[in-house]
Amino acid sequence: MAQALAVAHTDFQCEVNHRDHRTADFGFSRLIVRRGAPFTITVSLSGRSYQPDQDQISVIVETGLAPSERSGTRVQFPLSSSLVENKWNAAFVRSIGKELSLSICSPANAKIGHYTLKLLCTTQGQSASLDLGKFILLFNPWCSDDTVFLDAENQRREYVLNDQGMIYVGSKTYISDMAWNFGQFERGIVDICLKLLDNSSNCLENQDEDCSQRHDPVYIGRIVTAMVNCNDDRGILRGNWSGDYAYGVAPTSWNGSITILRRWNRWNCQPVRYGQCWVFAAVACTVLRCLGIPTRLITNFNSAHDTEQNLRIDSFIDEDGKKVKKSNDSIWNFHCWVESWMARPDLKPGFDGWQVLDPTPQEKSEGIYCCGPAPVKAIKYGDVDQKFDCPFVFAEVNADHVSWLIRKDGTKKEITVNHRVVGQKISTKAIGTDEREDITENYKHKEGSKEERESFTRADMKNKLLQEPEKKLTIKLKTEKINMNGTNFDVSAVLMNHTSVEKNYRLMLCAQTIMYNGQSIQECGWKDLSSVTVGPRGEKTETLQILYSNYGQSLSEHNQILIVALAMDYEADELAVYRKVITLQNPTLHIKILGEPLQYRDLIAEISFTNPLPESLCDGIFLVEGAGLTDEQMIPCPIHTIAPGQEVKVRIICNPQKSGLRKLTVDFDCNKLKDVKGFKNVIVRPMDK
Question: Which strand (E) or helix (H) includes residue 194?
Answer without folding.
Answer: helix 189-198
